[in-house]
Amino acid sequence: MTDIDGEAGRTARKRGQIAEAAMAVFLRNGYVGASMDEVAALAGASKQTVYKHFTDKKQLFTHIVLATTAEVDALVKVVAATLDEGDDPAKDLRRLARAFLDALLRPEVLRLRRLVIAEADRFPELGRAWYEGGFERVLTTLTTCFERLAARGRLSLDDAGLAADHLVGLLLWIPVNRAMFYGSEAGDVADAERDRLADAAVAAFLRAYGPADGP
Amino acid sequence: MTDIDGEAGRTARKRGQIAEAAMAVFLRNGYVGASMDEVAALAGASKQTVYKHFTDKKQLFTHIVLATTAEVDALVKVVAATLDEGDDPAKDLRRLARAFLDALLRPEVLRLRRLVIAEADRFPELGRAWYEGGFERVLTTLTTCFERLAARGRLSLDDAGLAADHLVGLLLWIPVNRAMFYGSEAGDVADAERDRLADAAVAAFLRAYGPADGP
DNA sequence: CTGAGGAACTGGACGGTACAGTACTGGCAT
DNA sequence: ATGCCAGTACTGTACCGTCCAGTTCCTCAG
Fold first, then answer.
1. pLDDT tens digits along A153-174
2. Which UniProt keywords apply (chains A, B) (predicted)?
């Protein structure tokens, strides 16, 4: 999961090591199952230092999770770049769908997702922040892209937001749910299977929202 | 929810009380957060009796969860009854979609779902069993119904299983995810909103898989 | 370049709490 | 009397958060 904070002086480096270790421990054991001793040990730090940087176990946890929402920016950019440039919506959508699948089925993303869902009652504001900072951000980007495509006559729709919801629903419901309920290793869907899922979802989407061939 | 085991003699009744109490406690606090003392207290039983009926905390948990898969039979029957009788697929599908939403957005179903997802790493076989005993059972029923509808010319599709996946994806991805990430009270979607979601999903589905108006 | 001053860090121990699972005692019904 | 069960005390373990004594690393004047 790369480094969570930037590179800097000693204290910032330690802080980053602690955050990285905490991410690993939380992902592996869940919030309650994670022990601060283990975090400290994995970070190569002492508990004193851990508690100097993060006041609480709760505060450490929320910091870890919220830091990851920055990563969705990459996905947002992929969406915009893929759909605004190309001239063949079917092909572009297939590429986009494949990118979505690859992004969401990464094992650490799945584990993080499971973690946030599991603690949605203990940390309600955290679940909300993750949903809005990740999920909805991608959806609104997709929505504005669809509006532009509709204006160019490449799609026929009244409600671009609804169409965006439907595309991701067609694409992700099955594989993401399988991955949620099966163990964390269930994300390793074969490459060909991902292509099949992406193509099928886009085909159905285009039948529902493709350009009107009119009467 | 209701009672988890059948009615029977005193020992079986106690067993049922313990199971019911355990369900409540696990749903409220999660697996690790649930304490056997609390289960015993809520069941009006002593820990001795609890451990007489269920060897372990783990064993109690898996028993609780697996007992709920029986409930999906009701939903399966609704699917078959709704789709096989009616003569107006659009109307039937809307009713079916609405029934799906109502079933899956019940707060206790959402909590159970969150619980199983959270513990999918600790209890891999449990997640698999729940997915196959609930999720896939409904999907296969829907698939055979779609095959019959296609044979009668009411739908046009090559792959009924794919169409079933797509219908539930269109319908459930957004509301279920919202409910997963927001607190447990997020299931209370307004009635009108549920109708809107159901109608929109069915409309899109029928554009993708409706009877061919063909040449 | 050098070396002192000070901030940050380590390692381990500790109090307090919570909980799984066991054992024991007394009561209630048959 | 006999068998089942409530109530409760107990054991052993795990862990959060704090504290202290000693060490390492960075900084900056000389």
1. 999 999 999 999 999 999 999 9
2. DNA-binding, Transcription, Transcription regulation
Q: How far is the CA of A48 from the C1' of D21 (A)?
A: 13
pTM of the model: 0.89
> Which residues from A are below 8 Å from B204, CB to CB?
162, 166, 208-209
Instruction: Answer yes or no: is B60 within a domain.
Output: no
In which domain, by residue range, is B37 found? 10-54
- Could you tell me if B75 and B40 lie in one domain? no
Q: Where are the alpha helices (DSSP H) in chain B?
A: 10-33, 36-43, 47-53, 57-68, 72-85, 89-104, 107-118, 124-130, 136-151, 160-181, 191-209
B2 part of a folded domain: no
**B178 and B85 within one domain:** yes
Residue A80 has pLDDT above 50, yes or no: yes
What integer pLDDT is reported at residue B213 of this predicted model? 57
Residue A31 phi, psi (nearest 5): -65, -55
**Structure tokens that stand for A146 in this block:** 């669809």
Closest Cα in chain A to B157: A204
Residues B46 and B110 in one domain: no
How many structural domains is chain B composed of?
2
Q: How far, in Å, is the CA of A118 from the C1' of nucleotide D10?
A: 34
Chain B residue with the nearest C-alpha to that of A124: B183
User: What pLDDT is attached to residue B187?
Assistant: 62
Q: Domain check: are A35 and A98 in the same one? A: no
